[in-house]
Amino acid sequence: MHKKSFYKAVVFALPLAALAGCGGGGATVSDGGAVLNIYCWNDEFQSRFRDYYPDYVSTNKAGDIDTLEDGTLVKWTMVANQGSAYQDALDNALQNRGSAAKDDQIDMFLMEADYALKYANSDYTLDVIKDIGLTTADMANQYQYTKDIVTDEDGAIKGSSWQATPGLYAYRRDIALEVLGTEDPTAVQAELSDWTKFDAVAEDMHTAGYKMLSGFDDAYRTFSNNVSAPWVDANKKIVLDQNILNWIEQTKDYTDKGYNNQTSLWSAEWSADQGPEGEVFGFFYSTWGINFTLLGNSLADPDGEKVEGNGHFGDWAVCQGPESYYWGGTWIAGVDGTDNISLVKDIMLELTCDKEIMKQITLDTEDFTNHKAGMQEIADDPEYGSAFLGGQNHVALFVESADRIDMSNISPYDQGLNEGIQTAMRDYFLGTVTYEVALDNFYDAALTKYPALSR
After folding, report:
1. For residues 378 and 167, what is the distance between their CA atoms, to the nearest angstrom?
2. Which of 17-26, 142-151, 296-305 has the lowest average pLDDT?
3. Helix, strand, coil shares of the chain as percentages rounded to 5?
4. In the predicted structure, residue 23 carries a pLDDT above the cut 70
5. DSSP-H helix ranges across 141-300
6. What are 33-86's pLDDT values in tens digits?
7. How far is the C-alpha of 300 from the C-alpha of 31, rounded, in Å?
8. Would you say the CATH fold of 167-325+383-402 matches that of 16-164+328-376?
9. How far, in whole angstroms, is CA 163 from its chain's centroid?
10. Which range has the worst mean pLDDT, 11-25, 339-353, 383-397?
11. C-alpha closest to that of 81 among 113, 112, 104, 122
12. Between vectors from CA 76 to CA 74 and to CA 81, what angle results, nearest 5°?
């Protein structure tokens, strides 16, 4: 299998005005193109494509062009998701596709949850059913939230995903046994089933010399994905939901009491807290985070064998935690103007709708894929278990969590405002500014990014 890269759901959005003036009218698509051009920010989907797409044949030495069985070339344009680089490049390709050489015109691209609506609500993306030709029956086993997240204002589904990303709480079995007297996931879940209990365990962990969480951002998605209303109301006013306020209050409390290690997501210190010398009880992670990021960070020798005794391999387990949530996810979108519409359709069918392919991805990588029947079969398999998680069938927990995900309160502004509140509140958590100043800083940055909004 292709060596999988760590997938970090860190995204940076351009102002929504970047897609203004994209025109209207019906989609224009055709077949017969010699090159299928795909834009993405890392090699996660590329590895899935090469490992599981049935018509894939080979890759050139440079690693940026694949050949399919019928001779079609697949050209990958990969722009790192740092700053707004990826979306800058993507927006440029979309806006200028008509003037590009035929073999350079963008046909497909990848997008993440926090900015999916930006593209779903543009005329650049194709209706998966009306324009591309998938049917509701083809997509019937996809988790509903994965369709909701890319549904435009008119009800058209504008993308399809091979993965679902429900979240869990991953914890260290050895610490649980020492402090809680049990490592069993069911018993640990009983101790963490709501935030009041979670806070009580955080106090117990502190008393025993451990941290409940690593940093300021670890619990953010469990709060932000359970808000009662979108970030922006019908009058384009930014709404600070009570659940975001609850995250701020809890994080400030944990910081002042020493319940966290004051790290930031993706920092070296945060990664080290998951490693052999870490003293943090657990991490909120969705599907990709457990089998990619946590696994890699946990090993004493990342290039060594994945066996018990290599760092904390085998010493982790997962439970539902206080709330159901999701984190991240990647969607495939077809582009209006593609000259490879049949290939776009076939890729979506094979890599996002085929049960056997979806199951095989999960069995090979421990990722959680977007096929309810396939995932239920693995969840019900008494022989299935993750060696990294001490033999636990984590897919069964993901199945329970995925059905409870509610996407009714997403908005096109989620990426910028979610990042903005986390960045602005960091100084408040550290005590370098007051809450009022941190809030002002958040609004100032938000209105700079989104001038059409108001406080």
Report:
1. 18
2. 17-26
3. 40, 15, 45
4. no
5. 144-148, 173-180, 185-191, 195-207, 220-224, 242-257, 268-272, 287-288, 295-298
6. 999 999 999 999 999 999 999 999 999 999 999 999 999 999 999 999 876 899
7. 50
8. yes
9. 9
10. 11-25
11. 112
12. 155
Contacts of 33 (CB under 8 A, 6+ apart): 72, 102, 103, 107, 338, 339, 340
**Which token pair is 130?**
């009306």
CATH number of 167-325+383-402: 3.40.190.10
Number of Cβ within 10 Å of residue 361's Cβ equals 23
Give pLDDT, residue 64.
Answer: 96
> Domain segments of the chain: what residues?
16-164+328-376, 167-325+383-402
To which residue do tokens 């009022």 refer? Answer: 436
| CA atoms of 118 and 396, how far apart (whole Å) | 33
12 close to 83: Cβ distance less than 8 angstroms: yes
**Rounded CA separation 279/1 (Å):** 33
Q: How confident is the model at residue 18 (pLDDT cuts 50, 70, 90)?
A: very low
Q: What is the pLDDT of residue 5?
A: 30
Tokens 């193109």, residue located: 33
Q: Report the amino acid identity of residue 48.
A: R
Cβ contact 143:29 at 8 Å: no
Output the DSSP codes for 167-199. EEEEEEHHHHHHHHS---HHHHHHHSSSHHHHH
Looking at CATH, the fold of the domain delimited by 16-164+328-376 is given as D-Maltodextrin-Binding Protein; domain 2 (3.40.190)
Contacts of 21 (CB under 8 A, 6+ apart): none
How far CA 312 is from CA of 31, 167, 179, 297, in Å, comes to: 50, 20, 18, 9
Cα 119 to Cα 346: distance, rounded to the nearest angstrom: 21
Answer yes or no: are the C-beta atoms of 273 and 261 closer than 8 Å: yes
Please give the radius of gyration of the chain, using alpha carbons only, rounded to the nearest integer. 22
Provide the phi-psi class of 266: left if phi over 0, else alpha when psi is between -120 and 50, else beta.
left
Q: Which residue, chain included where needed, has tokens 């998680």? A: 389
Query: Other CB atoms closer than 10 Å to residue 125's CB: what's the count?
Result: 29
Token readout for 371 is 């096929």
Helix (H) or strand (E) holding 108: strand 106-112
- For 211, which DSSP code? B
